[in-house]
Amino acid sequence: FLTNPAPICVLDEVDAPLDDANIERFCGLLDAMTRETQTRYLIVTHNAVTMSRMHRLFGVTMVEQGVSRLVSVDLGGAESLLAAE
Questions:
Q1: pLDDT tens per residue, the chain (85 residues)?
Q2: pTM for the complete prediction?
Q3: 24 and 48, same domain (yes or no)
Q4: What separation, in Å, do the N-terminal and C-terminal C-alpha atoms of the chain show?
Q5: DSSP string, the chain
Q6: Among 5, 7, 18, 65, which residue has the fewest nearby CB atoms (within 10 Å)?
Q7: Cα separation of 52 and 43, whole Å?
Q8: Is residue 29 domain-shared with residue 15, that is, in the same domain?
Q9: How far is Cα 29 from Cα 33, in angstroms, rounded to an integer?
């Protein structure tokens, strides 16, 4: 993958069977691969540790029956807002 990286990579709940130590290792690997290539990763996860290591979160919530809403959070921007308070 490092010799011929794809522009985008989708990983769907690949961290689900991992314990916290291996989730940290997985996130470290993603960080390294992001630095070494121009590949962007779309990670589908329910794991709080994985989410905390991402740059941006997207979520889908159901406001009312049959009506979905997309929510986006820039974690870097959120940290800046918290630091300013």
A1: 778 889 999 999 999 999 999 999 999 999 999 888 889 999 999 999 999 888 899 999 998 999 999 999 888 777 777 777 7
A2: 0.75
A3: yes
A4: 42
A5: --SS--SEEEEESTTTT--HHHHHHHHHHHHHHHHHS--EEEEE---HHHHHT-SEEEEEEEEETTEEEEEEEEHHHHHHHHHH-
A6: 65
A7: 12
A8: yes
A9: 6
